[in-house]
Amino acid sequence: MSRWRIVLIVTLTVAPILFLAGVGSYYLWVEGWALRVWWPMAACMALGYGLGWYWQHKKLLLRPPDFAEPMHWTERDQQAWRLVEARAKSAAEIPPAKMAELNFYVDVGKAMAVELAHFYHPKANDPVAALTIPEILAVVELASHDLAEMVDQYLPGGHLLTIRDWRRARQIVDWYPTVSNLYWIVSALFSPFDTAARFTASKVGLSGPFQMLQNNLLIWFYTAYVHRLGTYLVDLNSGRLRLGAQRYRELMRPSEEAAAGADHPGPDPVDQVRQITLTLLGQVKAGKSSFINALLGEQRAKVDVLPATDEITKYELRAKDIPTTLQVLDTVGYGRDGPKADQLWATQAAAKQSDMLVLVLHARNPAREADLVMLKALRAWYLSNPDLKMPPIVAVLTHIDLLSPSMEWSPPYNWRQPQRPKEQNIAQAVAAVQEQLGDFLTGIVPVCTLPGKILGVEEDFLPALAGILDEVHAVAFLRCLRAEINAQKVRKVFYQLLQAGKEGLRLALESRPR
Amino acid sequence: MLEKLSHLFSRDQRKADVQQRLEQLRKRVPAPVFWLFGKTQSGKTSIIKFLTGADAAEIGQGFKPCTRFSRIYQFPTPDAPLVSFLDTRGLDEPGYDSAEDLARFNTEAHAVVVTVKALDHAQENVRTHLRAIRAAQPSRPVVLALTCLHEAYPQQQHPEPYPFDQPDSADRIPDALRRSVDEQARQFTGLVDAVVPLDLTPAEEGFHDPNYGGPRLNAVLLEALPAAYRQTLATLEEAVKDLQDLYARPALPHILGYSTLAATAGAISVPFVDLLVLPRIQKSMIYHLASHFGQPLDADRFDQMAEAIGLRPILRRMAVREVAKFIPVVGQVVCGAWAGASTYALGKAFCYYFRGVREGHIPDPEELRGYYREQLTKAEKAWRAGSNNKEMEPLPEAGVEGKKDHHENERSS
């Protein structure tokens, strides 16, 4: 389409409207209505301007792309994200003309890749060089896919948007004043005084919101671009894209989808992500095994007045409110004999294999130094493994039946709004744990695990577990991803070698002189 | 000589000497010192409560920090203590080092009481530090108190009567508890001299016997202490249990504390300065009692009151009695017992007076003196019986160091 054709079409389309506007204005002027009709029109325009300005200002016409950090991100990823966020925030300072250029996006993409790579590998000279081509392609694929979805979802008529449209986004703005100027000239012929007043008002009024809308559109796209690209660059640098875009998407699939498939747990790691491993930690005689029995609803773990668990034991649990299978590991209590390095190591190893930790504490034994030591050791380990996320830790406060008054047992006890002495003592015990270990804990649940007096397990513990299920899944995701990457790396290299070998063989066979 | 005399008559110097003398005396009072050792909330305060009769708030306020990891409670007052408790509360804190506490308490502590909850087997930390304390002085008795027995049988009463001191009643102990107690005893073998299972609970917990196993602890501690200290503890126990005079009972430990201090002062052969020490102790006691009964005294009111209630002659007569101390050996014992008993009787007389004031009939001097004499006779008898097995070495002459300093100061000024 050449320009003169467009001009012709626009002229033909607009001419009747202009004609009507002219004739209408003339009529109103002749009839002497001009003044009376003007005010409501001015009011409409003022309202339009007001709303336009307000909504633009509040970013309600085109919402900024909202972004929530993926649950599986570790502390280091969150720090990297701050770099991305800063770049997205600076969008307002970039001239709109620049944002309309395609090359600008390529440059921004490169700059971000280098910036994040430097963040993750601060000591490397050329951190980008270590990345593999499939990984980079996976970033491009995933980011593009997301952007396409967002444009589809949020931009009206976004699926019709062509590059040319994009380039012309600026030109359209230029056209609008031209057309409107034409209108004003025609108007002025009929009513020079009124027109002058209206012209000034509309200049201030209309062009402002329009300009803003256009700029916002560009900023919106830019922010969305930086966010999406940033997200996948973070995952790339954390090594999570080594499996390829396809596998990544499969593992990331929301947990609800997979819940239906939880009945057939198979060896596939995708199912393993759905299966949560929960490890019980605690001092000797804190009540870990009793808690497992209360959780299972039957006496399966051996309990005794003397320490009874001397090796890590595994139990499987299906709770009705939790859409996953729970693997429960019962560990050996600590704090009894001198530090038995191997047992402590085994307990810590189990903790590192879990997606959630349950710290079992005795409500009446407030000496918790040993627990603190254990938690600190675990946190230190996770800090030295920044590609893994520390699992959430829920504290379970057992033996609340022994709290004063010890002769009384008449549940339920509403310790959140304590009234009775026992409720107050439970609340105090919870507060004490919060003070001692609160930094490490996502929640504290007081329970009684005595058979026949079980309290707090179904009422409080399982809901608390359900509440942090997403976080738990994120931990499981990272852990399984790491395991799979380690196993797949080797397999992939073999496969590629094999393919290359086949190709070589084929070439050799083909080139063989017959 | 002249210097010495002028020295004696200088009021400030005399005061300082008396103060120093009191310091020395406090160290020699046969007040047992218990080193309580155990995790937080393992029952240390309950044991103090049981042994002294003081309430939890009083104990909480009475504790004064003394090292980085521990604190001390001197009962009833640091001024005239009858029994002291060291609480190693830092045991659960990171970086606890028993060496620091050992350096401070090793010579002071007469017995160690290890508190362990009967069902809490996470005692690695306790045993590690206990080993060091045991090694520092193997002859010092260590008693293992296994507390919170009821945790083994929640919401049930204790098996009665107390079965742990009767060899043939093991079958009355709930199985879980018996095995746990046996296991604790096994774990602490070689570290402790006696094991006492007990459960000291506040009345509101609803146990029939709130001092379950308490008498046994008392017996074991009495046996463990050196003879001189045993007497103090036994007297205290008796006083705390005295049901005759409920009004005066909370004040009794204070009176006992001052009389013991006075007895110690009286039992030591004396330079002139000791003539002043005894009245000083008695005066302190009366001030203390007055504020205890909510009627604090100043110096003038004290004199007035002593005169009014007819105790003035008694106070005066004591100075005369002091002279008897110059007769060696016999004088010491007589004086020691007499100083203690008279202070005790004086304290009781003041209690009697304060109670009268409270009840609205102020006792007349004659009645009060009668009461004093009655108490004195009783107390003297008891004290003499108790002091037979006390052996006291004479103190170095009081104020020697002070004097030296004094001279040096004079020279330099």
Identify the overall geometry of chain A.
elongated
Strand arrangement within the widest β-sheet of chain B reads 2-3-4-1-5-6-7
Total number of domains of chain B: 2
Could you tell me how far the N terminus lies from the C terminus of chain B, measured between alpha carbons in angstroms?
21 Å
Order of SSEs of chain B: HHEHHEEEHEHEHEEEHHHHHHHHH
Outline the fold blueprint:
The complex is a heterodimer of chains A (514) and B (413).
Chain A: H1 3-31, H2 34-57, H3 75-89, H4 96-99, H5 102-120, H6 133-154, H7 163-190, H8 192-205, H9 207-237, H10 245-252, H11 255-259, H12 269-274, E1 276-282, H13 288-296, E2 313-318, E3 325-330, H14 341-352, E4 356-362, H15 369-383, E5 393-398, H16 421-437, E6 443-446, H17 457-467, H18 469-511
Parallel strand pairs in A: 1-3, 1-4, 4-5, 5-6
Antiparallel strand pairs in A: 2-3
Helix pairs in contact in A: 1-7, 2-8, 2-9, 3-5, 3-9, 5-9, 6-9, 7-8, 7-9
Chain B: H1 2-9, H2 11-28, E1 33-38, H3 44-52, H4 56-62, E2 64-65, E3 71-75, E4 83-87, H5 98-105, E5 111-117, H6 124-136, E6 142-147, H7 175-187, E7 194-197, E8 199-200, E9 211-212, H8 214-224, H9 227-241, H10 252-266, H11 274-292, H12 299-308, H13 312-322, H14 330-359, H15 365-387, H16 400-412
Parallel strand pairs in B: 1-4, 1-5, 5-6, 6-7
Antiparallel strand pairs in B: 2-3, 3-4, 8-9
Helix pairs in contact in B: 2-11, 8-9, 9-10, 10-11, 10-14, 11-13, 11-14, 14-15
